[in-house]
Amino acid sequence: MVWKPLYALTRAPALFAVVLVVSAAHGQSQAPITRAVPSFEAITKGLVGSRVFETRLVTAAVRLEVRDLVMGPGIARDIPLGARVLMELRGGAAVTTIDGTKQERRPGDFWEVPKGSVLTIENPGDVAVIRAIYLYEGPQ
């Protein structure tokens, strides 16, 4: 019988601390959590692109635009480029066709699409995420 009260007393400080923390947190008003909603725009049917991050290189007449391209299952044909593009498959799976040459891509793969090329991307899986770096050369 002596052990039960001692056992109860050893748990009392921990229980008191939990009650104290919970009651203190409950009494505070918290600001609502706001998250930036990523904005995407349609590039072509089946493909959307994130907001563009733009920078100019100081050492060369080159402007870079970086964005993520996201697509669900299906095919995005005749993707408009307007510049030379370096691409990286960041997630999912993709099959690219560049000027008629078909190539299977895996996460981590990089490839270049020359300016003026005809680009088609096929996504055989659920979601594919591609980082695209557009290189605009010359004074602009």
Describe the structure.
The protein is of the alpha+beta class. The protein has one domain (40-137): Jelly Rolls (Sandwich), CATH 2.60.120.10. The chain contains 1 helix and 11 strands. It is globular and about 40 Å long. The N and C termini lie far apart (87 Å).
List keywords for this structure.
Jelly Rolls; globular; alpha+beta; disordered N terminus; four-stranded antiparallel sheet; 140 residues
Helices and strands: which structural class? alpha+beta
Q: How many discrete structural domains?
A: 1
Secondary-structure element order, as H and E? HEEEEEEEEEEE
How much strand content do the residues show?
over 45%
**Can you say what the CATH homologous superfamily is?**
Jelly Rolls
The first-level CATH class is given as Mainly Beta
**Biggest sheet details:** 7 strands, antiparallel
